[in-house]
Design a protein that fits this description.
363 residues; alpha/beta; 16% strand
């Protein structure tokens, strides 16, 4: 359990970094803080002293305690070369090492440092990461949004970066509430092409596994529906299995139930990504479902999973390293004073054939 003075420190620091308190604003009096937190005067003074030492507050005798912006210039021993913050949902899994490698290679060319954090697609961890970046005083920021298809309570932190004129871009997705440059795969097109490949192979009863708390999932669902519509195929809601970050640990069990319930109704499935595609293959093996003879499967993102699995997964390309490099290049150019930079960048996916899709006779 946190000491009471640390709770006060964390709350006031969060209010400063998110912009609730601006530089020069007066914070509540010691007496008011005592009442708010139900603590002693000494506990309040310990918190204020620590925040003052870190450059977040300054006290004026006989007047009160005010917000200081000194923490921005202190930067806790930050090196002379510029530092770019990078926040991704994950670091070591799936396509993220390739994205980070692209960012790092471009930053190294101009002697920029990289400060890395991950959120595990959790908004509380995203808040901590953003506070760290603001406290450190990064010169630019590259962010993969957390749960980008639902309201994000950390929007105020991004507005603080904008107010401080710290350039930032988003990768893989973006927050629709913000007007921010982004680098994204064309996720609608990716799922549209995936579904179209199955239709071209004669499949008419096609399902989809969709992750719906991320913007990619929303757009990949859109591409799936668009392809069905153009082929004059009916969209069946019961052929959709949706999940989110919270229910992802239960995906294997839910896939098994989904396949059991629709064993006679589906001949092919579009997967949210290659990770889901591999999970689906493993479930099919446990259930004795032959791939691709009984069920065709197509993933998305062309990850190392698609290439290294025992059965090569059919998938769609994702720029990965190039996306990271382009995002870093955008930040560097903005810091160098360039203004005519693209606000939106979409990468076009391409089909990568595999062993998990088979043509069937027309029904």
């Amino acid at each position: 359990m946190k000491p009471k003075y640390q709770i006060i420190i964390d709350d006031i620091k969060s209010d400063i970094l998110s912009g609730t308190y601006k530089a020069g604003d007066q914070i509540p009096t010691e007496s008011a803080l005592q009442e708010i937190y139900n603590v002693s005067r000494q506990t309040v003074r310990t918190a204020i002293l620590e925040l003052s030492n870190e450059g977040f507050l300054r006290s004026e005798k006989g007047s009160g305690t005010y917000v200081s912006s000194q923490y921005r210039s202190r930067s806790n021993g930050k090196p002379a070369n510029k530092t770019i913050g990078v926040i991704t949902t994950y670091i070591s899994d799936y396509i993220f090492p390739s994205i980070i490698r692209g960012i790092e290679s471009r930053l190294n060319e101009d002697n920029y440092s990289l400060l890395l954090a991950s959120t595990n697609n959790d908004v509380a961890q995203e808040k901590k990461a953003l506070e760290m970046m603001l406290s450190y005083g990064v010169d630019g920021l590259i962010v993969e949004p957390t749960r980008s298809n639902v309201y994000n309570p950390n929007i105020a932190y991004y507005l603080s970066f904008q107010e401080q004129e710290v350039p930032f871009v988003m990768i893989n997705a973006y927050y629709e509430e913000l007007d921010v440059p982004f680098f994204c795969l064309d996720d609608v097109l990716s799922s549209y092409l995936a579904t179209g490949e199955l239709i071209a192979k004669g499949h008419t009863r096609i399902g989809i596994i969709a992750k719906m708390d991320d913007l990619q999932g929303k757009y990949r669902m859109k591409g799936f529906i668009k392809a069905l519509g153009e082929a004059k195929l009916r969209f069946h809601p019961e052929h959709v299995l949706s999940f989110d970050t919270a229910t992802k640990p239960d995906l294997s069990a839910n896939l098994e139930k989904f396949l059991h319930d629709h064993s006679d109704g589906l001949t092919a499935i579009v997967c949210y990504n290659d990770e889901v595609g591999l999970e689906l293959i493993q479930v099919c093996r446990r259930m004795g479902i032959s791939i691709p003879d009984e069920l065709s499967i197509i993933g998305q993102d062309n990850s190392y999973i698609a290439k290294s699995a025992n059965m090569k997964l059919a998938t769609l390309t994702h720029p990965q390293e190039r996306m990271g490099r382009d995002a870093a290049d955008w930040i560097i150019k903005r810091l160098q004073g360039k203004r005519d930079l693209p606000a939106t960048t979409f990468y076009k996916p391409e089909l990568v054939e595999g062993e998990t899709v088979k043509a069937i006779e027309a029904e």
